[in-house]
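Each field is listed here:
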Amino acid sequence: MFTGIVEELGEVVAVEDQGASARLRLRGPRVTADARHGDSIAVNGVCLTVVETSGGEFTADVMAETLHRSSLGALTVGSPVNLERPMALGGRLDGHLVQGHVDGTGTITARHDADSGTDITVGLPEGLGRYLVEKGSITVDGISLTVVEAADDHFTVSLIPTTLALTTLGTKQPGDPVNLEVDVLAKYVERLLGASAPGLAQELRRSEAAR
């Protein structure tokens, strides 16, 4: 489990195409300082398993499903990446609960820069808009952000200068893809309400009949 608070802006060192999958080698001295084989590190919001570490770098395999669901397949040597280690039990939850399970990719459609920060609008894949609410949370390329405006096909977030300086969103432009993970609590609520819908309908009918 992650929090969406990026620890380090890393870099892709090597990309090995393995057909349906890929192997990435990434530089991240801070996140690899205590990393071991089998540990998890979020890369642009995608939870990956560490295969090996050496000299401030780590290697991770990316399976076909991950390449399909995320933008990791577009990474090349030199690409900057947001890196975060899992939250330690008992640690501060400064962002929100992030699983590192990307729901899909969005596309930046607009960017407005100002002295106080930057507003970015992101187009949503079909079906994700129902999980967003104004002032709710959304993970964009592994960054926990607050939704300013929520619509069925897009949302807007405001970025402070620190976020722009320390993450990949500082250089992202309209047309660039971003990984999205909606708040998992919204998905559980939807599932629970859907499962209880027949029972709720029956109770309503009984209530009407008793009047």
User: Anything to note?
Assistant: The chain has two domains: 8-84, 104-189. Residues 26 and 67 are 16 Å apart (CA to CA). The domain at 8-84 is CATH 2.40.30.20 (Elongation Factor Tu (Ef-tu); domain 3).
